[in-house]
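User: Sequence recovery, please. Input:
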């Protein structure tokens, strides 16, 4: 059986189309038609990916994503009819991993789904035993084998996307990465107008690893160029 995907949208016609396409591609699909049902299904069905519409009755996609993020790092692909940058940022800040504007090509949706699942499966493939290939920057320690990050000996909870960004940057401490390079190497897709997407994920990582995210010691912006991770 293929990976489990939860599709959440109050438009039943869209859900039917997505379910048909995803099942044809080999995925197990379950549907929910509002945010409340999405939260319940995320706990019961344990999907490996959630496709979440923003505007829904009872509990919208943003609120549902915030609630799911309290318990799970499952990848969330946000769908919206709005293309404005502020809406994209709100979705990413709520905890979404990626954002797709309606209408979209089915091939693009499937490509995003494959990339998100690949990152999640890599993060979830931890094994017991001694860690190998540790990356260490200051008091940050990333264990590739166990797929774990600790700061001053305490575990830091990351989504699969956040883990991949830190893994990329911790492998080359002191090197400046542009937003475009981070996107292309982590999302495995061509970078076009991706500054807000990367910025929001960087902000979320800072909130987890910095004592004062407004004055970061580890993850810093090099204005007009990109981002760098280095020891304090």
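Assistant: Recovered sequence (232 residues):
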């Amino acid at each position: 059986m293929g990976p489990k995907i939860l599709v959440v949208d109050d438009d039943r016609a869209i859900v039917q189309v997505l379910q048909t396409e995803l099942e044809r591609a080999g995925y197990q699909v379950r549907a929910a038609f509002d945010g409340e049902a999405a939260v319940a299904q995320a706990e019961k069905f344990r999907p490996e990916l959630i496709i979440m519409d923003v505007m829904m009755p009872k509990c919208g996609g943003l609120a549902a994503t915030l609630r799911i993020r309290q318990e799970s790092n499952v990848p969330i692909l946000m769908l919206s009819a709005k293309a404005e940058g502020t809406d994209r940022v709100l979705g990413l800040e709520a905890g979404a991993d990626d954002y797709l504007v309606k209408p979209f090509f089915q091939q693009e949706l499937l490509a995003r789904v494959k990339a998100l699942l690949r990152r999640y499966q890599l993060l979830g493939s931890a094994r017991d035993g001694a860690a190998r290939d540790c990356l260490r920057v200051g008091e940050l320690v990333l264990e590739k084998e166990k797929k774990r990050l600790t700061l001053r000996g305490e575990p830091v909870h990351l989504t699969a996307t956040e883990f991949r960004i830190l893994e990329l940057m911790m492998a080359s401490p002191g090197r400046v990465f542009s937003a475009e390079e981070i996107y292309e190497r982590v999302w495995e897709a061509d970078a076009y107008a991706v500054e807000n997407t990367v910025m929001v994920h960087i902000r979320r990582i800072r909130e987890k690893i910095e004592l004062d995210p407004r004055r970061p010691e580890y993850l810093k912006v090099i204005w007009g160029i990109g981002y760098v991770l280095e020891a304090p």
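The CA atoms of residues 202 and 219 lie 8 Å apart.
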